[in-house]
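User: quick one - fold this with protoporphyrin IX containing FE bound?
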Amino acid sequence: MTDTTTTTTDPRGHIFITPEAFADMDEWHRVAAELRREAPVVRVEKDGWTPFWAVTRHADVFEVSRRSDLFWNTEYSAPGPDITYQMLQALGFELPRTLVHLHGEVHDKYRKVTNDWFKPAAVKKLQPMIDRIADEYVDKLAELGGECDFAQDLAVPFTIHVIMSIYGVPESDEALMLELTQGLFGANDPEYLGDFSDPGALIMQTIGKFQDYFDALTEDRRKNPTGDLATVLANGTVDGAPLGETELLWYYIIVATAGHDTTSFALSGGLEQLLRHPDQLQALRDDPELALNATEEMIRWSSPVRSFLRWAQEDTELSGVRIPKGDAVLTSYPSANRDEDVFVDPMRFDIRRPDADKLLSFGLGMHYCLGAQVARREVRTLLMKLLERTRNIELAGEPEWSATHFVSGVKHLPIRYELG
Ligand code: HEM
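Assistant: Sure. Structure tokens for the protein plus protoporphyrin IX containing FE:
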């Protein structure tokens, strides 16, 4: 066991929480690879943040996720500066209680409320709806006249439309949902900060708006149940009682937000790579059977959820480093997904990669992404319809990345295309 008294913090560890670091993923991956080799479990300290251990290797991220008896999810599971939590409390908000903030039996009970909705057989039934929405968006290619921003014109509105259709929220409210998601996840990115000088203030206002919106939705679905996901949540019970007010609000928020931002980044980041590898794009056109594996590779490569925090319940050890009881560990999914011990030539994008299914982009264990099957179908469906509808697609400019440490990726992807 390594003696932690000799462990000093390593400034390279700031890449996991510095928003701007995620706007240059080549450099980010260069540093993460160095850390995997030299300091795979690295102590990170930064002003305004509770110190934590960043876990960079596949085996360790796997272990932390699997050992949920030892590493717990808490109210502080989403990595963020302390001020965010202090402001929430100062303004009288309770700390978040989404599925990723709950642990053990309570988590299981809350997860059961929607679990059936997201099981593979149930998700398969969503395919006609996903097809219809994907058709609607690829139809827009004709209107857009040969050039567009794939991320903002297709991937983002498509994924929002799918998740809102699952909820049963009207199309007219989707613009608001997009604004609120970006307010919550993208608050550090100047593009989304708008008139706010401080990301914390934007986050606070966003939570308030989410609350107003979902309170009204709950009231409606309790009076007029329709069988959509909002009805399941509004009328769901835990231990025979309706979901707690805070839990219900955060349940809505996590499905609404985690349900599209993530998937749209997988689509735009994955398509960027296909456009940089025209031979692979062509192979996919020639053999649509490659779509399943290509989807895994796009999600491995883009790894849109950057990390979560878990809290050690006992003194323990990871890659020879002692983690004291009570300390936080950060699971770096993009780093785990490029671990050379697991993936052959990990920095190569390859839709035929036989080890693509080792990806950790959806996490693992009891918190494994609830929407993983929906996300996979969305990515595959939009991608294949895009290829069916076009004869040729190429990059029409440099992609732009969002500068956000929690959920991020390619936010602008200029493309040029000819319809088929
Ligand atoms: C490519 C797209 C997506 C990625 C990369 C992704 C990634 C993740 C990750 C890393 C976790 C945490 C896993 C863990 O702690 O072990 C998670 C949890 C979750 N995701 Fe996703 N997600 C995606 C799409 C979706 C979609 C489409 C939905 C909803 C329909 C969704 C809903 C959730 C929920 C509710 C949880 C919490 C599960 C729990 O704690 O029990 N996600 N996701």
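One thing worth noting: The pocket of protoporphyrin IX containing FE is lined by residues 65, 99-100, 111, 163, 254-255, 258-259, 262-263, 266, 299, 304-305, 308, 333, 361-365, 367-371, 374-375 (CB under 6 Å).
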